[in-house]
Amino acid sequence: MSQLRLNPLTGRWVTTAVNRGERPVSFLPRHLPVEAASDRPCPFCPGNEEATPPALETYGPNGDWSVRVVPNLYPAFEGDTPMTVANLGPVFTQANASGIHEVLVYSPDHHGSWADLDDKQAGLVMAAIRDRVEDHARTNGIRYTQAIVNHGREAGASLEHPHGQLLGIPFVPGEIAEEESGFRRFQGSCLLCTTAESELRANHRVVLDAEGVVAVCPFWSGSPFEILLIPKQHEVHLPDATPSDVVAVGRALRDAIVRLRHVIGDIAYNIVFHTAPHHHRGDFHWHVHLLPKLSTVAGFELGTGVMINVVPPELASQQLRAAS
What we know:
Blueprint: E1 3-7, E2 12-16, E3 57-59, E4 67-71, E5 85-89, E6 92-95, E7 100-105, H1 119-137, E8 144-151, E9 164-169, H2 174-185, H3 191-202, E10 206-210, E11 213-216, E12 227-231, H4 243-264, E13 269-274, E14 287-292, H5 299-304, E15 308-309, H6 313-322
Parallel strand pairs: 2-15
Antiparallel strand pairs: 1-2, 3-4, 4-7, 5-6, 7-9, 8-9, 8-13, 10-11, 11-12, 12-14, 13-14
């Protein structure tokens, strides 16, 4: 029988198809190649730096960059004009999309991915994310920064070269506002500290238990092989975490993706870093969502917002642990 499970972070119900847990589950790799522009070289490869705006940050020894952050040529948020809301009618409200949109080129290897990062490179990438989030927090009008990685065409990647994006926006988005509400509802202790402790104790959904971080297929997974990475040390903001904890998350993320690759193949996925809104002082615990693109969001999900997961997280974590 299927089960309804409550996601305490968002307050939304998800449906877990427990009755399918004993069936052999097979996903064909859906990671289609990202089409490259044939009329110009890759703008993110070493030697083509002039194809992008000047770098905001570079990381690497002896002048050879290993990680590079550049402004996005086609920003979704741009400019430092204060956010001004205008009412054009009873149901027509708009505001200027001011903010920051940057590209994080996290490897010089055109054919690499997060799964291919060594320990040092994973640390550099996480240091770049931390530094940029910290810089955004000092920028007037920026209330929240979203760091993401889209891997594969199905996940929204438009260029093959491994890269992520950092978007500083002038409002707190709904997903983060819902998670903030989830932390407030969970009175008495931190929601994700309790989740990490409970999952380690139960050991039904733990993917890996590393120094400084635990990765689980959460009890309330809304999609197959969804993974939640929780730093063991409680910090509200990502930039406030110790360098060792920040690096540990990057390495655990790599190891989780490697296990996904062993179990399912080189599938498309999204990485989403969630940190508290800038200058927020309430309840929160920064964390990372790893979301493989293995199922289609269809009419029921779109109509209700209720996700249906055909692979129970207990089964997914079992397969991922075995892949070690």
